[in-house]
Amino acid sequence: MAAYEAGKGKKDREICGFFRSDYVGFQLLKTWIATTIAFCILAGIWLLYRMDEMTSIFYAMDLDALLALGRQGLIAYIVLCGAYLLVSWLLAHVTYAKAHKASVAFDRMLNEIDGSEEEEE
Q: How far is CA 34 from the centre of its chain?
């Protein structure tokens, strides 16, 4: 019990210090920020790779091509964010459930120890 309390128990207590919805929401916010940063980096790399194509679109002032490129980028961003947020939501729920279950079991063991010591006295 001491090993659990010093190791995994500390993290479980930290997780259980939040309400489930707050913990899941915070994990989703972190995922959304990281996904947005990653998408911007990847979009920048893609734009650099296609620089000659981009400059020809800009010089031709082809508004339809720019709008199509913007739509493709927006769709890619929505799909990427949606996938990562779904996975993050599932992982956060599972992590919270496991931490809560472990904390409840640990508290039950502590109560059994406290109860058995009181009976002996």
A: 8
